[in-house]
Amino acid sequence: MTATGEPARSGRESRRLAEARSRAAERLARQRGTLRPLGWAVILVVAAGTLSGHPAPGLGSKAGGVTLALCVFVVMLAIAISDRFTRRGYAAQAVVIAAMGVAGVTLAALQPRGATELAAGSAVWMALARLPLALGVALGAGVTVAVDVATALAGSSSTAVLATTLLCVLLGLMAHFVKQARESQDRTELLLAELQDARDEQAQAAAIAERGRIAGELHDVLAHSLSGAAIALQGARKLAEHEQAGPRTREAIDRASELVRDGLSSARQAVGALRGEELPSVAQLPTLVESFRSDMNVDATLTIEGGARELPADAGLALYRGAQEALTNVARYAPGASTTVVLRYAPDSTTLTVEDRLSAACAIGSGDGLPGVGGGRGLAGMRERLEQAGGSMQAGPTGEGWRVELAVPV
Helix and strand tally (H, E) in the chain? Predict the structure, then answer.
């Protein structure tokens, strides 16, 4: 059972619902903390009235009954205002409140004059404040009728009986309204949390649908265009062979074909990401390096240093795309270069270094390998992706080639 008196619900709740239930429990605790001094004040008033009433508590027949009833009332009310009371089941709470009511009725019967009616009224308050409405009303009505009968049989006037009835009814109504106000606020917050969750789910579903539509459009456009380019390059290769074109021309056509195949593969990965498929990360670096070795004839080797660990999705994707772009640049601008790819897991960061070494006759980063191929924003795109993941990038020529170093925090 929850702190608000509701049965515990199975299943995993959203963060908003959990927070709303937590606030409801806090309101109940604050309300009980505010009313607890009033409960102790009732105990003092009833005890003082009983001690000064007639017959006073003692060991005789009636005096012993007064003593027992007073002790039962004090103990039961002390239990009812304790922090652990609301953690008990409704049956246990009803037993405590009923015992409190019986003690109050007994005090009213043995001491018809004094403040003993407040004891029965306290039981009515607790019944309406803590129990479900039907059970609380039944128990409160029973205590009210019993105390009326007891005071009437003890010789009290009809006015005194009516006053006792009005006191019990007033306390019961006040307890009901206080409980209803708190529960109404609890329900309102829960409904608002559920409504916000539903809106978030609806927005997420709409976003997924839109991403699927965009992915379909990209697939149709890019797949058609790149497939057409690949077919055209195959025709150009055969035409170059038929026309006995020079080796540099045939090599340029072959390299362009490889770039088109790589672009088609990257486009399919991007479409898969839009459709919610698993994004590539550093775990796929061995496959990436091997594909460049076999498909694009890049002399690349991969070395992993340090203990491997799982990286955030955006950081892992940024390193993977950086390695992909760097290797593509090697194949594009420095064919034949010896390339090393080093993935290093440091205590405070993860770095990826791609460095090529080639002869001085090769142009480093000049773009002369395939004029007009590529968008010219490879390094800028890498830098932007790394910065979005909280990382950084350094790139530039070395004495023997070109070096790109990507770093992301742990």
Answer: 10, 5
